[in-house]
Write a structure and sequence with these properties.
The chain is mostly helical. It has one domain (14-121). It has helices spanning 5-10, 16-33, 39-64, 67-88, 98-121. The longest helix is centred in the middle third of the chain and has 26 residues, at 39-64.
Length: 134
């Protein structure tokens, strides 16, 4: 797809300040709380952080059709669900090491999904063709 100015301006990831707020702050929150917070506050921080990143990705995928956001949005939302389930004890992802598993798969996995998806489909999905009534 041609990267027109409307598409790029709608892309949250094209602006460093928005990128740092939407993704940098949640990643820092997850990283800092990983070994220093008890289970309940860690569950809240991780669940909310992954929810924020997932929500921003889904919104970005819908507004500018950014390829990786169509995949990383659901990925982050699943990581939020995993954090919530593990933190509340409803699902055990390996005891205390479960947090490492969720963090590594959630963050590093999203990075891999980003690189692979854009290597396959490019930076933006093409706009759907509109059907004429003629």
């Amino acid at each position: 797809m041609n990267e027109d100015s409307k598409t790029v301006s709608a892309d949250i990831t094209s602006n460093l300040k928005r990128l740092l707020v939407a993704y940098g702050l949640p990643i820092v929150a997850i990283s800092l709380s990983a070994n220093y917070l008890p289970v309940t506050p860690r569950t809240v921080v991780w669940t909310l952080s992954f929810l924020v990143m997932g929500g921003v990705c889904v919104r970005n995928a819908m507004s500018c059709r950014r390829v990786h956001c169509a995949f990383t949005g659901p990925w982050f939302l699943l990581a939020a669900l995993a954090s919530l389930l593990h933190g509340t004890g409803l699902v055990d992802f390996g005891g205390p090491r479960g947090w490492d598993l969720i963090g590594n798969i959630g963050l590093w996995g999203a990075f891999a999904v980003w690189i692979v998806s854009e290597a396959i489909w490019g930076k933006y999905f093409a706009e759907p063709e509109s059907k004429s009534d003629a």
